[in-house]
Structures are given as structure tokens and as C-alpha cells.
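Following up on my earlier thread - several people asked me to post the actual chain instead of describing it. Fair enough. Here it is, all 264 residues.
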Amino acid sequence: MARKKTPRWLQAARARGAPVEEGERADWLARALGRSGILPQQEAEHAIRDGRVRVEDRVEREPFAPVRPGMTVFVEGQAHRLESPLHVLMFHKPEGVIVAGTDPEGQGTVFERLRAVLPPELRNFEWYAVGRLDRDTTGLLLFTNDERVVQHGTSPAKHLPKRYVAQVAGRPSEEALTRLQEGLVLEDGPTRPAGARLLAPECVELVLTEGRHHQVKRMLAAVGHPVRTLHRQAVGSVLLDVPVGSWRPLRPEEISEGLGFQVP
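Reply from S.P.:
Thanks for posting it. Predicted structure:
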């Protein structure tokens, strides 16, 4: 069995003789700056290597330098505390943009669209998308500054429901809906049972508790009704309620009850 690779932040900590307490949440400088809303992680890495970041009493040029919550850092001479308040945002993804760092086709990414509409106090956070939506899929996409929310929202073990509305070719029969509800076999194995109902002659609502690649499209194609348009309405019990291209923060009860995420 291959040995698990030691994380870069831990390598850096050991090299410096820095203590790492058992159970302490691992963090390193570049990521901590992003989590705290001081600089997005990529910008933070450049600033650190350029010598523009000081950690308490020293200039730090190692992006993976271990840090602790509450430490004081200086960026361009301005003092900041490494504090990471939990943020989860709802964003209404438009058609045509992708969930990726860059877009080779030049139509833009969801991260660019999100930052363009955020207020200044939120723009410098490192935002992580909780799952993905295809370029041509619209609807609810969640963002957070805490990877633990990403892990929770995408974990196969959590079975967090996600509700979609699909415009399809043809009118699905009761038999087709039953097959979706009971689960069917795709090329990568059987699916979990899904919620499925007809909203209009060629419009299906599908609720999944797993998240495979292109799963909604593949399931509907498997019962003879290829998807024409796809929109995600809800994750957990959090319902999309902002216009296309807009955002809002999730309330604490939406995070804890709607998504079932409890801060460890």
C-alpha cells in the first residue's frame, strides 16, 4: 500500500520546528489569507513570494508556511488577523459560463461572474464552488470560503438532495417516471432511487441524492427523453430565490438546517 503523502504545510511546519497540536485545523499562509478574505489564494501566493507579506515579526516567502487562527499578518504594511468567519453564498448561475478557474472558450467562469457582483468586503475571499453545474445548466450554485462545506455538500455518504427541472424531448410516460423513481442502471452502475414527477407535458422535476457526472441528462436519456434545458432549483431545502447572475448570503439556519452542515 502506498504511503500517504505528507501535506506541504506539514512539511514546512516540521522543517521550521513549528509545533502542530493534535486535532488542530491544518492551515497554511496562502490558504489562510484566502479563507480570511484578505487576498484570494492565487494573489496571496504571488504577494508572499514577492516579499509583500509579513507574519508577525518576519517577512514570509513560503506560501505553505504553517499559521494559526488569530495570528497577525501584514500585507503591504497593513495589519490583518487570520480569522475565518463561515460564509456560504447562493448564486444564480447563468447559461454559458463554466465552473472552473479559466474558460478556454472565453465565455467566462462562475468565479468571475460572482466576484463582479460581490461587495468589496467579500471579493478577496477564496471562494469554492460546492459541486458543479454544466456550462449549459442554470440555477442554484453554492459558494463558500470553507472547504468543509464543499466536502459536506458533495459527499456521497450525505445523500444531500438536489432538485432539478428539465425540459425534455417528448412526454415521459408513467412507466418512464417509475423507472426513474426506482433507480436504473447506467454505464457506471445502478442509480439511487430518485424523486421524479411531471410538471408539464415535456417538463420533469428530478430530485437526486447523489451527484455523478451528467447524471440528470444520462438518466433522462436512458428512459428515452433527452434533456433540452436543465435548471437546478434547490440543494437540501435551500431554494433558489435570486435573479439570474445575482447572489445572497445564506442565513445561519439555512446552513445548519437547510444543508445539514454543523460547524465542527
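The CA atoms of residues 93 and 203 lie 20 Å apart. That should answer part of your original question.
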